[in-house]
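Justification of resources, computational component.

The compute hours requested in this renewal are based largely on the per-chain cost of generating structure records like the one below. Each record pairs the submitted sequence with a full structure-token output. That output is archived, and it is also reused by downstream analysis tasks.
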Amino acid sequence: MSFMDMKTKLAGLMAQCLTDTWPDAQGLLTAEEIRGLLAVPPDPKMGDYALPVFRLAKALRMAPPKIATTVVEKWSHEDVARAEAVNGYVNFFLNRVNFAAETLESVLKAGENYGSSDMGNGKTICLDYSSINIAKRFHIGHLSTTMIGHSLRRIYDFLGYKTVGINHLGDWGTQFGKMICAYKLWGNEEEVEKGGVNELVRLYVKFHEEAEKDPALDDQGRAWFKKIEDGDEEALRIFNWFKALTLRDTERVYKLLGVTFDSYAGESFYNDKMDRVINELKEKNLLTISEGASIVDLSEDNMSPCIILRSDGATLYATRDLAAAIYRHDTYHFDKCLYVVAYQQDLHFRQIFRVLEKMGYEWAKDCVHVAFGMISYEGQALSTRKGHVVYLEDLLEQLKLGYETSDTVNAYFVEDVEIRQEYVESSYVMNLGYIAEKLNETKEGEVTYTVTAGDSYYSIAADYDMSMEDLMKLNEGYDPKILRVGDVLTISNAVPYLTVVNVERQRYVQDVAYQVEYTDDASMYQGEYKTTSPGVYGKADITANVTYINGEETEREVVASVTLSQPVTEQQLRGTKERPTWYPTGSFSWPCNGVLTSRFGYRSLLGSTYHSGIDIGNSYGTSIYASDGGTVTYSGWMSGYGYLIIIDHGNGYQSYYGHNSSLVAAKGEKVHKGQLIARMGSTGRSTGNHCHFGIKLNGTFVNPLNYL
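The structure output for this chain reads:
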């Protein structure tokens, strides 16, 4: 008898005890319900099992402590040494002699089948694990997912489930066109057959080395992949041969591990199954366009969008994984589908499962990402006599691979990384998992930030997840009360220990700017323009080397440009009529002389209030001037502002001049920039002589300091 069997037996005995004690009661707990409630107490002194009886209170119209006491009084069974009633719980103490004897008898009788069950009878579990890449070596990363997935499969088999092991091969992408190109140029059948995957890897590396000297090779690689897509007989023959070689190589590893699969349906298998996904997403209005790409918006789930199609119409991993999930459910009718993949893909799978839910697939809840982290192996260490230095090289390559794509032409570290073999004391030896963990961590560094319009010390500190105090410590030379556009601040930021530079060859269509031709028009003012015939952007096919540093684009070098369509010149009328003095210039000047006494935004004066402008303080009667030309739309008293002037500048801007002692400009008057319009005072809600100066843009107040 196992501990779980004892739990089932105890639940049955308890159900019978309840029925015997209260034979006429309705709503008593069933054996199955009791089994679900039985729990192992945190302290062995509290028993081997504990059962809460609170759910019986309503059915028996009795307080839980009384129910527990009654059960204990009635309880009697040789498998339970004693039962105790404690505050609405019944604590069971097993007869350990009987339990041990029954358990040993069960073990001897069942043999290797001890612990198995039929709980999974009639249920199917799909497991996606290993997922090797075609034409690449089986490495330690594959070992983790392979063994975890295989172990889970054996457990489910032992519990009576029907399991389906799926090796989702990485067998699609431009890299396979490059592999074929490399084989045709520098390989031969005999060497590939003899060397297997190692020879394919050598050819792949050579391709990228040669492509750096001759970028045209990339085009040849893409051409071969296009042949694979189009079903070219020779291309498919070589491609399938590479797949067979890879599987032959890895099968030796799988045989040693005792691992088998029911399906090797990889990425290429779903080429003809993605249209269904895309069409279904469109029909259900789940697909939207963002920057040219087709996405499913997941912002309501606090997730970034799930990209289904790139701007060039190409599918992505998400598209294939959605198609794979639907196919697996249609084919195997699984009760649960497990994806044994490293934790770095957690967001990807959360996106996939959520999209399936939004598509209306109730079984999406049965899809589970079984994540795992970095695995450490004893003895696999740097600088030992066993020569494990080669594994560190592989580890560094893996760090770079995290940034590489099928379009990568070069990847390297900015830092000088030296690897040498030495003999050291064992206390200094670190395992590979620990090294990888440390190399993926970040160290504190310092970067700069240039202040833009609308910034504040508070917003900058919040954006960089730091305190105001720390920000000011790094910028002691700055006045914390004054922040100007263009100021360069020092910011504390996380800097990686290793900096990976990845150069990708990308091809895309880019807009070509059109020219503008002007025709003078004496009926329009100087500075006014009117489009009579809009321009049309041209199109160019661009090939560029794009440089990324730790995943962030830093440089884009165009290496080829082919014009697809010419731009169409735009025709505009250009005003030549001399502007009147009151015509707005489009820029603002300070409305008066004085000292800045209050800034724009929230302030603590009279509680937390919002200040819609700036205050400029000076003596009573100081002249107030129009900040720019325009028409006075208000000149009079307004609650809060006191005597107020409002000027409409005719370009979406309005300027406000409040708390004046007297008004010079009248409503409807056209005023020029720098014209006297009022005199300073302290009317309205004011604490002293000053000019309240505000600027509205399209009906919303903005910070005037960004315009002065």
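Residues 389-440 form one domain. The longest helix spans residues 233-257.
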